Every structure is written in structure tokens, then in C-alpha cells.
Amino acid sequence: MRDPIARHLFAEAQEGIAVFDETGTLIAWNAAARAITGWDEAAAAKQDLLRKGAGMIQIRDGKWVDLRRTAVATPGRELRIVLFADASAQVALTEARRHLTEGGIIDSVTRLPGAPIALGHLERAVALGRRDARAVGVLAVAVDLPRVGADVPTDELMAQLGTRVTTATRTSDLAARVGESELLIVLTAMAGAQDAAIVAVRLLLRLSQPYVVAGRERSATVSVGVASYPTDGDSAEAVRAAARDAMSRVRSGGGGYQVASQTKG
Length: 265
Prior knowledge:
Layout: H1 4-12, E1 16-20, E2 26-29, H2 31-37, H3 41-45, E3 55-60, E4 63-74, E5 77-86, H4 88-102, H5 115-132, E6 136-144, H6 154-168, E7 174-179, E8 182-187, H7 194-207, E9 211-213, E10 216-218, E11 221-229, H8 236-252, E12 256-259
Parallel strand pairs: 11-12
Antiparallel strand pairs: 1-2, 1-5, 3-4, 4-5, 6-8, 6-11, 7-8, 9-10
């Protein structure tokens, strides 16, 4: 490379760059390429990079690169260029998410935590609430959608529901999918037990807006049961049961919300 600017860009690029002449001979291999792959230029020349497919490529155990190819015409010849970036962390994250999903830790449809995470979080929240004399809220949420033909498109509904719940709850709250059409939300940053009802009303308004399911806008029936520690139970299981009982009662009445210790609000 005779152009000093081109030489500088080649040397300082964050992506790996391999340049081949028209015969397929490697003629340039930058510092990023060496750092990403661990190969010096002589080792890289033996890898036959021009024949490898584009996209995510595993170059050795545990090392992945995102590989792309292009060509540049120069006076008298055409150079073929292989560009690649380190994708090992991205692949590892994807693999970790797959394991979490398969183990029920993360729900694959809503992208919310699963029941094991929610129940463990609730146990810890109640233990801390008992220690610090603070209230802990629990919302049990059920969503019912009319059938579309012979089926209820639950996954399509729950995917949208997961997004709405994430935006409607506070960063201090934990929302999880605990059943086919049920969520459990644990509220920890509460000034008092009444805060749970306030969050429930806001959530009900957000989740009751129409959904686009099977290509059509449809309304869902949302039922929210509200309970809190220590008002409605002295343990995580007791508070959760109180919230689910309240949710079942309001669900049988056509939806809305109900506080476990009160009549329907």
C-alpha cells in the first residue's frame, strides 16, 4: 500500500483485514486480524479464507468471527478482501440465552424470566421486607383472548404482552411468565402496601389496549390480582396465593383488578 493514509487505516482498523491478489495469495494481514485470530501472516495464508462462507464462522474451538468478503479494482488487477470481526462474545451470549430458555429460566416467547426466577426473587424480597419492615407487592396477571378459528394464538399474544409489561413496570419490579397466559410481578420499591394497587391500575390500562393477533386487532381480557406482604400473607407463598386467588375472582367476573384484602376496585 503506497498511500500513507491507506496504510494507516489498514494498520489501525478495529476489524481484521486480509487482502489477496488475483491468484488468491495473501498479500496483507493487519494487526487486528492477528489479534482476533491469533494467526501471523504465514499461518493465515494456510487457512484458505477465500473459500470460507460468509457470516458467523468458527475458526477454532470457542473462537468465532463474523466474516465478509468484497473486491476492489486497482490499476492492472483486482484485489479480493476478507473483513472479519470478533464474534465470540456474541455467540457465547446467544448460547447462554439458549441454555437459559431450554431450562425454563427465560421464557422464549415473552423474553421475561420464568417461574424459577420469579419465585426465588419473591422469597428474597419477602425475607428482606421482613428484615427491614417494608412492604412487598405481588401482582398475579392473567390475559384471555377470544379464539381465532379453532385456536387461541397464545404465543402471538404473549410476545406482545411481554413487551408491554417491560415498558409498563418500574425498573425495580420483576415480571415473569409463570403460566401459559399468566404473569407474576414482584414489586419491591414500595413506600406502602397501597403502591401495589397503583401499579396494578397502570398495568391494567396498558395491557388492556388492543393487540394485533393473526393479522387483526383484537381486545384481550386482563385480570390482575393484587396482594402484599405482610398485609395479605406472612410468607412468599402465602402472598402469591392471595394474589392468585384475587386474580381468579376478578377473572371469573370478566376482568379488571382486585386487591386481595378488599372488594373489587
